[in-house]
Amino acid sequence: MRDGSNALSIHIVDDDEMVRCGLARLMRSAGHSPLSFADGESLLTHLHQAVPDCVLIDITPTGRLGIKPQERLRARLADIPLIAISARDDEETVRLARQLGARFFFHKPVDGLALLDAIKWVTGDPAARR
Q1: 97 within 8 A of 84, measured Cβ to Cβ
Q2: Domains in the chain: ranges and CATH
Q3: pTM of the entire structure?
Q4: How confident is the model over 89-112, as a mean pLDDT?
Q5: By its UniProt entry, which SMART domains does this protein fall under (predicted)?
Q6: Which of 38, 53, 68, 103 is the most buried (most CB within 10 A)?
């Protein structure tokens, strides 16, 4: 939720702590307010307290995040912009990202400037549409 400034609430979901920290640092450097989660279940629990402007989520067909939390996230927040990030860029992972409603898909390592531009785009920043 916006706090009256241009800061966006960005929720980051990734099972790798270093990735979460790096993305959170990038979000803070851009003036946003990041909140990090190690898994989709933790994010789903937190959503009862605050709805973010955008969610960055590690898309993993198998593993700790799992498909079920991602599907429940998409069902619960159909109107929240979702940006998928994954170490995998195979057809199955890209298909899953599309099914979950991701508006962008980034392969790790993520280009920080491109990610910030995508966040501007999905959150409706008019400057991103030029």
Answers
A1: yes
A2: 9-129 (3.40.50.2300)
A3: 0.86
A4: 91
A5: REC
A6: 53
